[in-house]
Amino acid sequence: MSDVVTMDDLSNEEILSILDDSERLVPVAKGEVHLPLLEGKVLANMFYENSTRTRMSFETAMKRLGGSVLNFSSTGTSVAKGETLFDTMQMVDGYADIAVIRHPRQGAAQYSADAIGIPILNAGDGAGNHPTQTMLDLFTIREAHGTLEGLNVVLVGDLRYGRTVHSLSHALTRFGAKLTLVSPETLRMPDEIVTDLRSSGSEISETTELSDVIPEADVIYMTRIQKERFPDEDEYTKVAGIYMLNATDMDGSKDGMIVMHPLPRVGELHPSLDSTKNARYFQQAFNGVPTRMALLCRSLGVKIPKKVKK
Fold first, then answer.
1. Range of the domain at 268
2. Which residues are CB-contacts of 136 (< 8 A; sequence separation ≥ 6)?
């Protein structure tokens, strides 16, 4: 049994193995095959922050594999009475076999993993990490391009507070990706992350202009400007809506270039883009189910069959 708190908890070989497992589990994720590998197991979904895709895909993944789910939120529970994270997690340790946690405080997932014995999967800790999102992002990229090696990936938007791009950037550079970072000056990727990425030998470039880098991109990864992370609403207003892609922006892009987004979108992707061959964000959201299935099985020590029969 093992935790996944950051992508450093997984080697490159483990990442590729999980992606292979995820691919085999796609028919199960779609409900075409019944494979109750986690029958009798209980997942605790511990969400201290709002979530649609992450929470629902984990619940779908567990239930498609025959398991059960306890859904928790910070409203309507003893957290509202002042119960500490430590005490809450002690309770979960007795109720479930594995827990997923999303929390506004960076480091909360590691704290929880250290506090209890059951495996912890980090579903986002503040502006820190979001490794299960990274795994579904890698799956989506490999699904489209057949490889993770040597791609030119453009990360756009809130690179300062965006935990999805923090986790993804580290993972991509491990597979030799070239990264182009597009953001307003106030939302640049933190210097310590850029330094770390460059120290790994990766080619990293930074710009404020999105249109200039579209023609050479293999992947454009859009993110929303996260209003809830801004201490000053005036600063948010200055950068809200600064980047938007529409269908005509795809003219002149590479064949096979894909547009991704962790969602929700709040103006970064015009609806005209939805019907283009480049749009992958809804498929990306579905991909959370097979990849989280594979992660749940790995953390619980359950082997996935080499062949999943329809």
1. 131-284
2. 57, 284, 287, 288, 291, 292
